[in-house]
């Protein structure tokens, strides 16, 4: 074994759940290694750069209802990382859908809070794990680039179908009831466009709009959200789950045109930039009943993420923390 690639604890995934777990483990005196296939931290809270500024193409905002997550949000508020964007948004009819709690956003991009959690952590990006298997009372992770990592404790925070596939590739046995429950967790997909236009969009003043769901479910104006006085609009368009499933494998150029046609009433001026992205695992349709799952005792294996107990950014944070606490106990 290459000792340089042995780490007592490995967290797989640098999204909200993985970084919440790794941050708590680090605060508790552990030295977890975080692996992620992307170029940087963020997961479904990533942003896309454009010539005219960034666009949050995953989560546009998050909410806090649990005291533990609210405490973390309060810390981010004090640091100036997040702000209260709104307490709800209008739909196409003009009806205001009040949420009852603030919708928080980040002026520097939604991944700003992930970068805060990642501070001081050992994170290896561009590491796409292809297989997880048990070797001599440890977990072995094999990457697409030929790297091999070993650990005594593995915490997997990717969307549940991806975690299951990695375990299946390594022929890792799971309790039948656990495997059945995990296999039943599916997610809504989402096709997203990032569009920059030369004029201010005719969206409501706060810059967010709920739509009927098909073909579009959500439009947000990054410029309006962050208070930019620039006339240019930076928009994210989220297609609905049915449209996204139906057109998932179709030509991106064709799908882009269909989404743009549906969004035309809310686009103004020249289209300066259009980018396309596919979120295969946007929102879980069903969640595991507990905040995390201890799938193996030795070597320790935990699964966590927004597919556990409650969905969304808050659910991912609470699940990651719960898995870290279970590992420490």
Question: Can you give a write-up of this model?
Answer:
With 329 residues, the chain is an alpha/beta fold. The protein folds into two domains: 3-44 and 113-185 and 288-328, 3-Layer(bba) Sandwich (FAD/NAD(P)-binding domain); 48-110 and 186-284, Polyamine Oxidase, Chain A, domain 2. Helix content is 27%, strand content 33%. The chain has helices at 16-27, 67-79, 112-118, 160-169, 176-183, 222-225, 241-246, 252-263, 312-328, and strands at 6-12, 33-35, 47-48, 55-56, 83-91, 96-105, 122-124, 129-135, 138-143, 148-156, 187-197, 208-210, 216-221, 233-239, 271-284, 293-296, 300-303. The strands form three sheets. Strands 1, 2, 7, 8, 9, 10, 16 and 17 form an eight-stranded mixed sheet that branches. A hairpin with a 2-residue loop joins strand 8 (129-135) and strand 9 (138-143). Helix 1 (16-27) packs parallel to helix 9. It is globular. It starts with 5 loop residues before the first strand and ends with a helix. The mean pLDDT is 94.
Task: Annotate the secondary structure layout.
Elements: E1 6-12, H1 16-27, E2 33-35, E3 47-48, E4 55-56, H2 67-79, E5 83-91, E6 96-105, H3 112-118, E7 122-124, E8 129-135, E9 138-143, E10 148-156, H4 160-169, H5 176-183, E11 187-197, E12 208-210, E13 216-221, H6 222-225, E14 233-239, H7 241-246, H8 252-263, E15 271-284, E16 293-296, E17 300-303, H9 312-328
Parallel strand pairs: 1-2, 1-10, 2-7, 5-12, 10-17
Antiparallel strand pairs: 3-4, 5-6, 8-9, 9-10, 11-14, 11-15, 12-13, 13-14, 16-17
């Amino acid at each position: 074994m290459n000792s340089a690639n042995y780490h007592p604890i490995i967290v797989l995934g640098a999204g909200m759940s993985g970084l919440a777990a790794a941050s708590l483990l680090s605060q508790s005196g552990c030295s977890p290694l975080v692996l992620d296939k992307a170029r940087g931290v963020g997961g479904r809270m990533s942003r896309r750069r454009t010539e005219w500024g960034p666009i949050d193409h995953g989560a546009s905002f998050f909410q806090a209802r649990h005291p533990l997550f609210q405490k973390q949000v309060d810390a981010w508020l004090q640091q100036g990382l997040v702000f209260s964007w709104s307490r709800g948004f209008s739909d196409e009819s003009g009806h205001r859908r009040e949420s009852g709690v603030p919708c928080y956003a980040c002026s520097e991009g939604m991944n700003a809070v992930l970068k805060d959690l990642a501070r001081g952590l050992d994170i290896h990006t561009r590491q796409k794990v292809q297989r997880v298997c048990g070797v001599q009372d440890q977990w072995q992770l094999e990457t697409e680039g030929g790297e091999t990592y070993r650990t005594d404790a593995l915490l997997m925070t990717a969307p549940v179908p991806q975690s299951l596939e990695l375990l299946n590739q390594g022929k890792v046995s799971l309790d039948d009831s656990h495997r059945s429950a995990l296999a039943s967790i599916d997610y809504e997909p989402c096709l997203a466009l990032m569009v920059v236009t030369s004029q201010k969009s005719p969206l409501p003043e706060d810059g967010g709009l709920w739509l009927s769901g098909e073909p579009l479910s959500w439009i947000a104006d990054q410029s309006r959200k962050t208070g930019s006085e620039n006339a240019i609009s930076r928009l994210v368009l989220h297609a609905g789950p049915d449209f996204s499933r139906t057109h998932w494998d179709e030509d991106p150029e064709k799908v882009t045109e269909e989404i743009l046609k549906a969004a035309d009433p809310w686009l103004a001026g020249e289209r300066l930039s259009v980018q396309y992205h596919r979120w295969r695992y946007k929102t879980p349709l069903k969640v595991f009943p507990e905040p995390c799952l201890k799938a193996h005792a030795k070597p320790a294996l935990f699964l966590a993420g927004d597919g556990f107990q409650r969905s969304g950014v808050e659910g991912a944070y609470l699940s990651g923390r719960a898995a870290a606490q279970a590992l420490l106990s």
